[in-house]
Amino acid sequence: MNALQLGFAPKMKPVSPKRAAIVAALDVGTSKVVCMIARLEPRGAQDVLRRRSHSIEIIGFGHVEARGMKSGKVADLDAADHAIRQAVDIAEQSASVHLESVAVSISTGRLGSERFTASVDVVGPSIRESDIARLLAAGSRHSGREGGIVVHSLPLGYAIDGVHGIRDPRGMLARHFGLDMHVVTADIAAPRNLMLAIERCHLSVEAMVAAPYMAGLSALADDEADLGAAVVDMGAGTTTIAVFSGGRFIHIDGFAVGGHHVTMDLARGLNAKVADAERIKTFYGTVVAGMSDERDMIPVPAMSSDSREPPQVVSRAALVPFIRPRVEEILEMIRDRLAASPFAAEPQGTVILTGGASQLTGLPELASRILGRQVRVGRPLGMSGLPEAAKGPAFAVAAGLLVYPQAAHLEHFEPRKTRQVMTGSGGYISRVGRWLKESF
Questions:
Q1: At what angle do helices 363-371 and 320-339 cross, to 10 degrees?
Q2: Which of 281, 367, 406, 440 is most buried, most CB within 10 Å of its CB?
């Protein structure tokens, strides 16, 4: 019985802050498959990216067009399998390593957040690790939704006798001990089939994690995460949102509309092939027309395969009526979801756009107007050896998967079916103790 059948996504073993490691990331999206391999080296305390315990050096990179995927889900198992193999093979060859496992992102399956509290009475005069273990166990019993899996389980803070916001409660005097926890859940079908496609490539899934959380790990500056920020990952088939506050990941949301829908609108408007519309959108796409855009002419290949038919020619400004309405629709959906999230309580919070669809000219300005927030485009931060082609917002999720081993210790997971039978030196309580020692 694998992790998904037990009700939770695979969890990565945290990397030791004193040891180097080789890690691999696999981002299987609607339009592209990216595999990155990196060497993590312990580093001392620094003024920037303070939460990272390791430096990250990219040693392998593979990037191919996705096939067999629709809105982040596997639609053709054989085609998805083939694309994953290609990307992994390219990365392995460039890094001269052979991969056995990868960390994988997911952006679909109705990703959603649950926030809940749990409390226990303290047995002795002060809080011990056994009290923390009982509290985490009590909280975890409430996590997850029917027919879904737990993707992330993150303690946000503890409460002692009604006083909230405690980071490390061990040794403190208390009678009542409480916990505030953020749990990310997803429907099981999409992750299960993605895991199947990856395992058919003779790879094990070391961790399965939420895409916008990974984008935040790679693209957020420390102050943004502390003061409040929303990371919006605009992919081809999905748009997902992660909210951060106080340096913690506190909320997730998303919907199945993305850049591919803009491409389809453009293809219909220009009467062009989808592949040609995607190329035109990538190189010339804009949501606002300038003076020069009326003069910039773009050839649009004919739909027919008849080479004698000349291409039509349109101005760059003529693309706006086909692109802007769908982009405005996506931004309005983002606005509504942010308004219903904890981000609404952060009036000065910044919105960071990542994903391939965020690269349209004029998008940050349009987003700032519709969202009523400061908006910037996010890119992977603090990584050496990153190829020039992978330094943009389209690769923020894949880069974040390489940061994640340094944040994995923050999470708490236990197999639902086995919580009641784990005892002894290798059981549940002892593992919680080890988790606490790594977390604080």
A1: 40
A2: 367
Q: Are residue 226 and residue 368 in the same domain, yes or no?
A: yes
What pLDDT is attached to residue 305? 67
Tell me how far CA of residue 181 lies from CA of 140, 152, 417, in angstroms. 9, 10, 20
pTM listed for this prediction: 0.89
Residues 138 and 259 in one domain: no
- Give the list of residues 6+ apart from residue 90 with CB closer than 8 angstroms, or none: 35, 61, 62, 63, 64
Helix ranges, 96-155 (H)? 129-140
Percent of the chain with pLDDT over 90: 66
Rounded distance between C-alpha atoms, residue 405 and residue 408, angstroms: 5
Q: Is 297 exposed, middle or buried (0-12, 13-18, 19+ CB in 10 A)?
A: exposed
How far is CA 355 from its chain centroid? Answer: 10
Measured CA to CA, the distance from residue 36 to residue 58 in angstroms comes to 7
pLDDT given for residue 304 in this prediction: 72
**Number of structural domains, the chain?**
2
Q: Which residue has the higher pLDDT, 246 or 146?
A: 246
What residues contact 399, with CB distance under 8 A and at least 6 apart? Answer: 25, 36, 214, 218, 219, 380, 383, 386, 390
Q: Does residue 31 belong to any structural domain of this protein? A: no
Collect all residues with Cβ–Cβ distance below 8 Å to 152 and sequence separation of at least 6. 9, 182, 183, 184, 209, 210, 213, 249, 411
- pLDDT one-digit tens code per residue, 164-215: 878 778 888 888 888 888 989 999 988 999 999 999 999 999 999 999 999 9
**Same domain flag for 179 and 225:** no
d(CA 59, CA 24): 10
State pLDDT tens for residues 20-58: 999 999 999 999 999 999 999 999 888 889 999 999 999
Task: Please state, rounded to an integer, the average pLDDT across all residues of the chain.
Answer: 88
Residue 439, token pair as written in the block: 């977390």
What is the distance between the alpha carbons of residues 255 and 108, in angstroms, rounded to a whole number? 8
The residue to which tokens 């080479």 are assigned:
307
- Radius of gyration (C-alpha) of the chain in whole angstroms: 23
Shared domain for 264 and 142, answered yes or no, is: no
β-bridge partners, 115: 182
Last residue of a domain, one of 380, 399, 417: 380
In tens, the pLDDT along 58-106 reads: 999 999 999 999 999 999 999 999 999 999 999 999 999 999 999 999 9
Tokens of 52: 């990272």
Residue with tokens 């080296």: 41
SS3 content of the chain, % helix, strand, coil (to 5): 35, 30, 35
